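Exercise 4. Each item below gives a protein and its sequence. For each, produce the structure-token representation.

Item: DNA replication protein DnaC (Anaerovibrio lipolyticus DSM 3074).
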Amino acid sequence: MTDIFENINDCCVKLKIDLCGAELAKIAADGNYTAETMEALSHLFTYLSTKKDAAMVQDILNKSRLPKSAPKTFDNFDFTRIRGQDVERIKGISSLATLHSGSNITFVGPPGIGKTHLAQAYGYECAQRRIKVYFIKATELRDKFNRARKSGSTASCVNTLVRYQCLIIDEIGHCKFDKENTMLFFDVIDRRYNKEGMFNTVFTSNKQPSQWKECFEEEDALLCSLDRIFDNAIVFNLKGKSYRGRKLKVVNVQVDNLNHEDK
Ligand code: ADP
Ligand code: MG
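Answer:
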């Protein structure tokens, strides 16, 4: 019986229902509830709590901008392609210890190596654990900043990006951030840096962080941003061949000239 009351108590906490195990025990005793009735109640509470949990995960995923169909996960990432002495460290990111310790992550490497896949898998894992996550490509971030500047809503734009516990910025270096956008980028980084608790930012890039200044215009703001990003961070340098093109088939055929004399 104790387990049943504990379970219902835990479910009530999750469901934000103001009913504790002791209260329920009294109701059960006063009403002469049978063990079967209590089992049924426990089953019902578990069902409701599981349903609420699943809805919460779905809500986080819906707001995250991570792909909904065929999501990239750690499960569908082929880690056997990765070799080297730090393999375990890259595998270990699925524990989200980096998020708990507020450590930022940067995946650097050539196209098709799996940077975006790993960043999205990290985001997907966050959502599974009810951690609010947001995925955005650098070009989309630039466009978002441009729109906010036009409509005079830069403050709320920055506020939104600061709110997510995990912010993933994909493909840094694919586009230029002008002076004002670099200042807004700094605002986001600085505000996130000063937050307490579980917060981190994940980047992917074809370029080493030392080359990022080529893509931002206001150098001081960028240097201050980099200072904060890499104050507590882990950089994964991925080397090797692109995963893309695995299904590419090349067919070479010889076509002879039509020789009239052969006719
Ligand atoms: P990048 O961002 O480095 O350019 P992506 O992460 O977009 O590359 O990877 C390109 C494609 O290859 C994606 O469809 C991705 O899911 C797949 N891919 C890359 N590396 C792996 C891997 N190790 N296991 C499974 N799929 C991979
Ligand atoms: Mg990519």
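Check: DSSP finds ten helices and five strands in the chain.
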